[in-house]
Amino acid sequence: MTSHARDYICGKPTKKGRPCTRSLHSWMVGFDFQYADGCWSHMSQPFQEAQDARKRADEEAWQAYLAADPICWGWPVPDDWDNWTYPQGGDINDQLSETALAMIMGNPESRASAILRHWQDGRCAICGHRRELVEDHDHFTGLTRGYLCRGCNTQEGVYQDSNTLFGRYRRRHPTSLLGLRIRYWDPFINDYAPPRTAETKQERWTDAASEGIGL
Predict the structure, then answer these.
(1) Is 10:38 a contact under the CB 8 Å cutoff?
(2) How far is the C-alpha of 28 from the C-alpha of 193, rounded, in Å?
(3) How many domains does the chain have?
(4) Is the pTM of this model over 0.85?
(5) What CA–CA distance (Å, rounded) separates 125 from 116?
(6) Strands 185-186 and 144-149
(7) Are residues 34 and 89 in the same domain?
(8) Are strands 133-137 and 144-149 parallel, antiparallel or unpaired?
(9) Origin, by domain of life (predicted)?
(10) Does 171 lie in the same domain as 135?
(11) Rounded to whole angstroms, how far apart are CA atoms 130 and 121?
């Protein structure tokens, strides 16, 4: 057993006088684990009462968070993207050649994807934190909604209630705010994600220049 694993073992004496080898009692609050000072059988009453009070406070804070609006609703949205180009001197310009930039800017869907990434600027559309982001998409339309941190992306799939923070995000997500339509490339099928209403492969979108794709 590693020293890290031992940190989460109860260790309190059992009735036989041996150290308890059960894991510390834990529970989820938001996205994080909370640990007691012992397993369920050996957790001290003062600690349990303190944890219960903290748990109630965290639950109230979580409910308040669920009642809030997605952070991206407060980001300014430019009136017109027609003349948008990559910011001069930005990291993307430093990494891409003029030819690559021309190809992206000349493709409506690629340009729309670049606009979305630029607008979000590495921020999660729901919580606003700068973390590793994943591309979120609508499974019914097959279209990208925006970029989320892994925590919000997981919770978005759990909270289906339309009256929560995540339900409000689904109604007004980044691509809808920006007026963009971007197909989601599904790495598991190595193809664009088909709408769930499509019954045959022929009903999928066929190319990036399809009507309504991009700006």
Answers:
(1) yes
(2) 33
(3) 2
(4) no
(5) 11
(6) unpaired
(7) no
(8) antiparallel
(9) Bacteria
(10) yes
(11) 9
Q: pLDDT tens string for the chain (215 positions)?
A: 444 456 789 888 988 889 998 888 776 766 778 787 888 788 878 777 877 887 788 888 888 888 899 999 999 988 777 776 666 554 444 455 555 556 566 677 888 888 899 899 999 999 999 989 999 999 899 999 999 999 999 999 888 888 899 999 999 999 999 989 999 989 888 888 888 764 444 444 444 444 455 54
- Please tell me what DSSP assigns to residue 48: H
Q: Which two tokens stand for residue 197?
A: 């209403």
Q: For residue 215, is it within any domain?
A: no
Q: What is the rounded distance in angstroms from the CA atom of residue 155 to the CA atom of residue 132?
A: 15
The percent of residues above 70 in pLDDT, for the chain, comes to 75
